[in-house]
Amino acid sequence: MTTESNETESPRMLKTVERTARIIKALETLDGAGVTELSTHLGMSKSSTYHYLATLQETDFVVKTGDQYELGLQLLLSGEYVRNRNILYRYGKEEVEELAETTGEYANLFTEQHGKGINLYKVRGSDAVGSGYQTDKLQTRIEN
């Protein structure tokens, strides 16, 4: 008996993991939220939403201030770990810094993951105008 699934089949999604990901994304979108607002936004019961949030809080992925929940800094640490292991980031960081210094403008280092462009690194050159774009939030669908 084999436990490996056929590569052409869609993987079985675990509801708890899918809901956890939805909660994390919703807290980002809503810029933090209380249990009622989040449960309404996600179409989940308040009790389930509370238990998910309590678990995420216990693992430092979410923090609670008053009655508001927001994303915790553990996500930043995990994201930095992933970025620092990325070979493009490790070899491209200095090139992006050099480009920003040479042009005096903003320079960004993007990569593709699952059809989306993800900004790994951005540098503001000395002559760059404005405060910059929120390119770290830009995740555009990449078409073939």
From TrEMBL:
<dbReference type="InterPro" id="IPR036390">
    <property type="entry name" value="WH_DNA-bd_sf"/>
</dbReference>
<feature type="domain" description="HTH iclR-type">
    <location>
        <begin position="14"/>
        <end position="73"/>
    </location>
</feature>
<dbReference type="Pfam" id="PF09339">
    <property type="entry name" value="HTH_IclR"/>
</dbReference>
<dbReference type="InterPro" id="IPR005471">
    <property type="entry name" value="Tscrpt_reg_IclR_N"/>
</dbReference>
<dbReference type="InterPro" id="IPR036388">
    <property type="entry name" value="WH-like_DNA-bd_sf"/>
</dbReference>
<dbReference type="InterPro" id="IPR050707">
    <property type="entry name" value="HTH_MetabolicPath_Reg"/>
</dbReference>
<protein>
    <submittedName>
        <fullName>Helix-turn-helix domain-containing protein</fullName>
    </submittedName>
</protein>
